[in-house]
UniProtKB/TrEMBL annotation:
It comes from Alloscardovia macacae. Residues 19-151 form the MobA/VirD2-like nuclease domain. Residues 452-475 are annotated as: Disordered. It comes from the Bacteria. InterPro entries: Endonuclease_MobA/VirD2 (IPR005094). Residues 385-446 form a coiled coil. Residues 452-468 have a biased composition (Basic and acidic residues). Keywords: Coiled coil. This is MobA/VirD2-like nuclease domain-containing protein. Pfam families: Relaxase (PF03432).
Length: 475
């Protein structure tokens, strides 16, 4: 049952080619085919395709379609070899393009279902005109794929809906494509099945038109075509960083957070991180593809099934720990966050007036004015999120994320201070902590204002309902 879909590439041409031609997916490149002969790397293919695009009848302009990405998937258990799938893909794309477009084809065998990724340059080498994907293009691709598969003796779908190309997300959605949350769930689920790291998950999501943005301990997914955004908490617990790490690693994980100042070295694949409370004498190594970062704070997702190896700064084995022991180092008891005084609490005897009565009056006016200003701000915040419930959820997530970053910065500051680190680093960390404490305080204050406002409105509504019932009874 071959499944076909097509997408446009407008920006990430080289990155897309690098992804589909990865050695671990294509038997060390044995299942990669370039239309112009030997495959010499993504850079060369990108340059060749850009040459065609720049020298067409209408030269390439920023924002134009660079290439089309076609995916042809076969169901698990299909009695067909990877070599046969590869040959079918080559025949398929040659016939579709009439051998007039450059293309790169890669057959992936790293998952249960064998599938072809084909990236076709949008520019026709012979005519100098661009390929146009029209309403019936997807069905034409599907019909051609079915025809070639029937000839090869491969099972095809006989009741496919016209003008519809099935994607992996469509399969997982089980027909519920009208629900946008379900659509995002399906896309993330399909991407996670293909991914083996957070880096490859980002690539898989981009291939499916989804951008993944990390902010603290949470992820926001954005549908690139529509701009629709949704937080992980709205999709379910298996779509947050811990849930995704579990999906990718196929085992339970535990997250630890640390500030970037705790990183001793980064070789591109592995982070060497100082072990807190050891005065910088010991460290752990974490695969970089097991981490997510928002720039300052890193979150690593460690498997609960495997002990963590501890090394000295001299790169010698020191010990190993289970996750329960490691938690004691990365999650010490934190002092309660001191809530910052509001600007109104920092006024120093600034109340106008001469007599005590006047001062009391003006003080009451100022308080009412400040309370009104805070109420307006709370209403504006609720309006930006759409409802009280959404506002409280968003503020809670924001507070949790900022606390996560705060705690990581506190640990990093302690380590830097104990090791008599660079004064600028200490100053920067103190600045981060002060800023985060202030932001947390503001978010917590806003949370309480929205919560109190909701309760007040609820009581008002109940009183109005009671008065209405009393009036009705008195009649």
């Amino acid at each position: 049952m071959p499944v076909v879909k097509i997408k446009q590439i407008k920006v990430t041409l080289k990155k897309s080619i690098e992804y589909i031609t990865r050695a671990n997916k294509t038997r060390d490149g044995a299942l990669v085919k370039y239309s112009d002969g030997e495959f010499e790397g993504a850079k060369k293919v990108t340059e060749d395709m850009m040459y065609d695009l720049m020298n067409g009848v209408h030269s390439y302009k920023e924002g134009d379609v660079l290439a089309h990405h076609i995916i042809q998937s076969f169901k698990p258990g299909e009695e067909i070899t990877a070599e046969e799938v590869h040959a079918l893909g080559v025949q398929f794309i040659k016939e579709f393009t009439n051998c007039e477009h450059r293309y790169i084809l890669a057959t992936h065998v790293d998952k249960e279902h064998i599938h072809n990724h084909i990236i076709v340059c949008a520019m026709n080498q012979k005519t100098g005109h661009k390929m146009r994907v029209q309403r019936d293009t997807l069905q034409k691709l599907r019909d051609l794929s079915d025809k070639l598969c029937r000839i090869a003796g491969v099972h095809v779908i006989t009741n496919a809906q016209p003008n519809h190309a099935f994607s992996m997300a469509d399969i997982y959605l089980q027909g519920d494509s009208t629900n946008i949350k379900q659509r995002v769930r399906g896309l993330v689920t399909a991407a996670a099945l293909e991914a083996d790291s957070f880096s490859s998950l980002r690539d898989e999501l981009l291939q499916r038109g989804v951008r993944m943005n990390v902010r603290g301990a949470h992820i926001t997914y954005t549908l690139i075509d529509s701009g629709f955004k949704i937080r992980d908490s709205k999709l379910g617990v298996s779509y947050d960083p811990v849930g995704l790490a579990t999906r990718i690693g196929r085992s339970s994980v535990y997250p630890i957070s640390f500030n970037k100042r705790m990183i001793l070295s980064d070789n591109g694949e592995t982070l060497t991180v100082k072990l807190p409370q050891t005065h910088g004498k010991k460290c752990i190594r974490i695969a970089k593809n097991q981490t997510l970062s928002d720039g300052t704070t890193y979150r690593a997702f460690l498997s609960e099934d495997q002990p963590v190896m501890i090394f000295t700064r001299e790169n010698r084995y020191a010990a190993h720990m289970n996750l329960d022991e490691l938690r004691e180092f990365f999650a010490p008891d934190y002092a309660k966050i001191t809530r910052h005084e509001s600007s109104s609490e920092r006024f120093i005897n600034a109340t106008p007036g001469v007599s005590d009565a006047q001062k009391r009056y003006y003080s009451a006016v100022r308080r009412r004015s400040e309370n009104l200003s805070k109420t307006v701000e709370a209403y504006e915040t609720i309006s930006s999120y759409g409802s009280v419930e959404k506002t409280l959820d968003a503020l809670k997530e924001e507070i949790d994320s900022k606390k996560d970053a705060l705690y990581a910065s506190i640990v990093a500051l302690k380590e830097t201070h104990e090791q008599r680190g660079n004064a600028n680093e200490v100053k920067e960390l103190i600045g981060q902590i002060d800023a985060l404490e202030s932001e947390i305080s503001e978010s917590e204050n806003m949370y309480m204002r929205v919560h109190d406002l909701a309760e007040k409105n609820s009581k008002t509504d109940k009183n109005q309902d009671k008065q209405t019932r009393n009036r009705a009874q008195n009649r």
